[in-house]
Amino acid sequence: MKIHLTSVFVDDQEKALRFYTGVLGFVKKHDIPAGADRWLTVVSPEEPDGTELLLEPSGHPAVQPYKTALVKDGIPAASFAVDDVRAEFERLRGLGVHFTQEPVEADSVTIAVLDDTCGNLIQIMQAG
User: Fold this and answer.
1) What is the pLDDT of residues 4-48, one digit of tens each?
2) Among 19, 62, 78, 87, whose CB has the most other CB atoms within 10 angstroms?
3) Is the separation of the CB atoms in 57 and 13 below 8 Å?
């Protein structure tokens, strides 16, 4: 068994697509109309057939309280692996990305947390 698809709830799918592709560097995999919304996924360009991230609309009534509570408590909705957290932090900060936590070492990983502009905190992490 392996993870095929996971999701983050986003306030605006088009804005999320621009951020996750244009800023974070993912590539669009699927963009299928689904009523008023879309089945919209992105993948790593390094693994185009790998795990997909669904940019899922935040329309369900339970989503907003959930997202608000996570952000209030500083809990990331997702974690993405990078080769060098400090370099990625500098690159993203140079693009205007707001970080709620600058890079820190925690046990055997280095982590930083950013705001995805769509209602979520996202952790980037480097193992080792």
Assistant:
1) 999 999 999 999 999 999 999 999 999 999 999 999 999 999 999
2) 19
3) yes
DSSP track, the chain: ----EEEEEES-HHHHHIIIIIIT--EEEEEEEETTEEEEEEE-TT-TTS-EEEEEE--STTHHHHHHHHHHTT--SEEEE-S-HHHHHHHHHHTT--EEEEEEEETTEEEEEEE-SSS-EEEEEEE-
Give this prediction's pTM.
0.95
For residues 76 and 123, is the Cβ–Cβ distance under 8 A?
yes
